[in-house]
Amino acid sequence: MIRKLNFTGNQAIDANQENGNVTTNVIIKSQKRQKDSFCAVSEKYRNILSRQVQKEKVEVKKMVFDEALKQVKGATKKHYLSDLRDAVVNRLISNLRFCRDPFAVAQNIAIAGKKQMDKVLSLGIASVYNSEEMKALNDELFSERELSEARFSSLTSSASEEQLNEASRLIDAVKRVLVELSNSGSQDEKAA
To answer: How many CB atoms lie within 10 A of CB 53?
Structure first.
């Protein structure tokens, strides 16, 4: 006689009783892990963009982003841009000091998804992107202001003009430092 007992949401007990011996097996059903909205939108973005003929144009990238956002249930632009800002500022921008526009490059890499970010951080940008692909990374899809507003505004208030200016000045300062580091690194290589 075989009986199945429901134990919890993801476990069941299979009880088998034959000739007075009882054996039980715990069966764990796998639950499909749901992706967070940032990953889901980024994945849709990559898939839709890969099918576009003129994928290098900023306008096309923006339309693709809007379409990807529509296709992910429960995703909002504000939440996505907030996560994007975190990825750009906290993880990528300081590691892209040799790029012409580190903010735009970091933004494009972050939109490509978490796996791509990790790949760039571990292998380096030159190993992941060829020179033609690097040109497409220099397009800024969202302004610093849009990302700051998404990150720092709430339902009851929004970022003040002073906060937005401060964020913009900070990013400009980081860009200048990165350019100087890039120039000094180039001079050190020439000297060697």
So the answer is: 7
3-state secondary structure 5-73: EEEECCEEEEEEEECCEEEEEEEECCCCCCCCHHHHHHHHHHHHHHCCCCCCCHHHHHHHHHHHHHHCC
Lowest mean pLDDT among 20-29, 170-179, 182-191: 20-29
pLDDT digits (tens, 9 = 90+) for 89-127: 888 887 777 777 888 889 999 999 889 999 999 998 888
The tokens describing 96, both together, are 């892209």
Give me the phi and psi of 78, to 5 degrees please. -60, -45
Q: Please tell me whether residue 2 adopts helix, strand or coil conformation.
A: strand
**Backbone torsions φ then ψ of 147, nearest 5 degrees:** -65, -40
Q: At what angle do helices 37-50 and 58-71 cross, to 10 degrees?
A: 130
Residues paired with 8 in a beta bridge: 11
Residues 6+ apart with CB under 8 A from 107: 84, 88, 140, 141, 142
The pLDDT tens digits for 7-17 are 445 444 455 55
**Statement: the pTM of the whole predicted model exceeds 0.70:** no
CA 22 distance to own-chain centroid: 51
What does the alpha-carbon distance between residue 129 and residue 6 come to, in Å, rounded to a whole number? Answer: 51
